[in-house]
Amino acid sequence: SARRSGESFHSAGFGPRLARPPPVTSTRRCMQALPGFRDFLPEPLPHRDAWSADVRRHIFNAWRDTARRYGFREYDGPPLEPLELFTLKSGEEIVQQLFNFEDKGGRAVALRPEMTPTLARLVAGVERHYRKPIRWFAIPQLFRYEKQQKGRLREHFQFNADIFGEPGPGADAELVALLIDSLRALGLTREDFVIRLSSRRAWQDFFRARCQDSSREYAFYQAVDKLEREKPETTDSLLRDLGSSLADVRAFIEAGQPTGELQAILDNLAARGLADFVKIDYGVIRGLAYYTGAVFEAFDRKGEFRAIAGGGRYDQLVKLVSGGKVDLPGLGFGMGDVVLAELLKARGLLPGVVPGPDVFVLFESPELTADSLRLVQQLREAGRAVEYPLGPLKGDKQFKRALELGARWTARVESDPQGVRQVRLKNLSTRAEQVVGPDAVLQQLAGE
Ligand code: HAM
């Protein structure tokens, strides 16, 4: 396999060829993924820390299916974007974490650390073509040069669902409901997670009543955002500098009085029977710079993990990204796969064994090879998952392999004394056998 991967690496022909392949200084170096980047492997996994491609598909399926139930359409954008798209309004923290470089044409570019700026750019360009409100979702892979820690890697997949063109709280409630239902679709319940709902606007009023310098507003939001992680003295002196104090901010959080807008969102969710999944918590403010209205984050109830998801309303972003040409209110959330997979694992909610093939075709005598291959093809064309030994393998080894794979049936082409072909089918759970004509195989399988 070393030869095979070496060949495909140098001869794959994606993009311009390098004049000389990069020197390989040690096998070890080229065999490991970069820190914070994951390999996804099929089950059964080789070790406890490996990431499962089957679990990833299970999560993506739940996301896609919930998005479909809510009428969201799928879009995507490029993973590499002009650097400026993210320095414009994502905010300091994300800009510090960018994977950025100069491309060969001298452009400053960055791997996308989040989807929202790309989406705002995309929507600004094509919104006239679509009926409002626009409801779109995507599952991009995102890249952030962060310190690696539990729940934080340098790449992750993020379910993004966003709405454009709807200013009222009904849209905010719809998104929170979608967030709740996508977690429920994975088996999580109200005992497992909670959505903490807050308002950037409420915090904006709070700030403006205390400080007239609007250039410092974002610094204030960041101080509130870091409240739970930062030393109290540090936060207090920062807040005092901004006309408030730690006690002042804490009192506002503890009072937790919903604004009219947040109350409308709560009422909407209560009507759907989803009230138990949400609580007002002004401790949430969101680190990203572009939010303007309701904001929210999803957390596990026990508080063992980092945020599962976060989002909110950003009514100025499309305008900003389009240089003032398009003015459309927007809102959305992002849910990462890393914390989510950890939480599902901790709650015993990972999917069970991946099903094996429907049929394992046993190949025995060489004169029946062509008939056996015809059977394989016929079953596959009918939509059945079929495996068979690709190389020579003794009969008992073939049967063992079928069992290991968890096949439901084995099928073996046989020849009767007159040379007529028949197929011996064996149901591997009941061990019952039947011999049928080649044309009756599909019917026989469908009957069970
Ligand atoms: P965010 O809070 O930066 O929001 O990320 C959303 C979620 O993505 C987090 O709650 C977390 O689960 C996951 N996540 C973020 N960074 C990492 C990481 N380094 N490793 C693993 N998981 C991570 C946004 O990105 C917004 N653009 C979401 C949004 C969409 N707002 C409106 N629309």
Plain-language structure description:
This protein has 448 residues and is α/β, with parallel strands linked by helices. Helix 3 runs antiparallel to helix 7 (169-184) and helix 7 crosses helix 12 (260-271). The chain has 17 helices and 19 strands. It starts with a helix and ends with a helix. Mean pLDDT is 92; it is low at 1-18. It has helices spanning 2-11, 27-31, 53-69, 84-87, 92-96, 116-126, 169-184, 200-208, 217-225, 232-241, 246-255, 260-271, 317-321, 337-346, 369-381, 395-405, 441-446, and strands spanning 40-41, 51-52, 73-74, 80-82, 100-102, 108-111, 134-138, 141-143, 155-164, 193-199, 278-280, 294-300, 309-313, 330-336, 359-362, 386-387, 409-415, 421-427, 433-436. Strands 3, 7, 8, 9, 10, 11, 12, 13 and 14 form a 9-stranded mixed sheet that branches. Strands 16-15-17-18-19 form a 5-stranded mixed sheet, sandwiched between helices. The structure holds histidyl-adenosine monophosphate. Residues 114-116, 144, 146, 152-153, 156, 158, 160, 162, 288, 307-311, 332-336, 338-339 line the site of histidyl-adenosine monophosphate.
